Automatic annotation (TrEMBL):
It is found in: Plastid. Residues 1-21 are annotated as: Disordered. The keyword RNA-binding does not apply. It holds the Pfam family PAP_fibrillin. InterPro entries: PAP (IPR039633), PAP/fibrillin_dom (IPR006843). Keywords: Plastid. GO terms for cellular component: chloroplast thylakoid membrane. Residues 26-241 form the Plastid lipid-associated protein/fibrillin conserved domain. It comes from Selaginella moellendorffii (Spikemoss). It comes from the Eukaryota. Residues 1-14 have a biased composition (Low complexity). This is Plastid lipid-associated protein/fibrillin conserved domain-containing protein.
Length: 247
């Protein structure tokens, strides 16, 4: 009798787990569906924003109360949606003909850690006619982060760096026409542009008793192997990321 009761409990637990997995999958699919046609948030209407907020809350409920797993967080995450004004300004600028915003990533380096690590914000962009489409230039913004509560991390920005600049074929043809011998000067110009590396330190001197800005607090509300949801405390912006391959 006891054995039957034990089997019944195990069967009920398995059924409950399967139902929860199905419900979670359905909630995640609803969120991803709501992201479509918002241009990563830059063209989201009020109704779309409201629907996205409801969908986010539903997904977040499946991960509520659990501590952050930094091994799961480690890796590269591709931005799929945001309402953060600083990121939206980049995406909206990409609608102008002289600037095109490419992919935006967050790359966390924290495997095997429990107290924090490093995150690199990666923004790819281009200038039509001057730089290669989509990935003509890459901006890297590096920050250290520490875990300050079960699901909240605190960022401290260190450096902004402009990575490799890839000029367009049109500009290369202008600097070094294919029909003429490439002069030493033209080759030097091409090499200098392609190897451009500009770094700006972001650390500022701050009194030891001065509190960090609330805008540097990042509440990670949901995390699994393929989805990351976050909310910036202070600014109120939300983020939806999907796991992607390292680059």
């Amino acid at each position: 009798m006891a054995r039957l009761s034990s089997c019944s409990r195990a069967s009920a637990a398995l059924q409950s787990h399967q139902e929860r997995t199905r419900d979670l999958h359905k909630a995640k699919m609803s969120l991803l569906k709501a992201v479509i046609d918002t241009s990563r948030g830059s063209r989201a209407s009020q109704d779309q924003r409201a629907l996205l907020e409801e969908s986010m809350v539903e997904v977040e409920s499946f991960d509520a109360g659990t501590a952050l797993d930094l091994d799961k967080l480690d890796g590269t995450w591709l931005l799929q949606y945001t309402s953060a004004s600083d990121v939206l300004s980049i995406l909206q600028a990409g609608e102008f003909p002289f600037f095109k915003a490419g992919q935006i990533y967050q790359k966390f380096e924290c495997k095997g850690r429990f107290d924090g690590g490093q995150v690199v914000n990666v923004v790819r962009w281009s200038i039509p006619g001057l730089l290669q489409d989509g990935e003509g230039a890459t901006l890297f913004v590096t920050a250290g982060f520490s875990v300050v509560s079960a699901r909240t991390i605190q960022l401290e920005f260190k450096e902004a760096r402009l990575g490799e600049v890839l000029i367009s074929e049109e500009l290369q043809a202008l600097l070094a026409p294919a029909v003429l011998p490439r002069t030493f000067l033209n080759l030097q110009i091409l090499q200098a542009i392609n190897s451009l590396d500009v770094r700006v330190p972001l650390r500022g001197r701050r009194p030891s008793n001065e509190r960090r800005s609330l805008g540097l607090l990042y509440y990670l509300t949901y995390l699994d192997n393929d989805m990351l949801l976050g909310r910036a405390i202070g600014s109120g912006g939300v983020f939806v990321f999907g796991k992607t391959q390292s680059f």
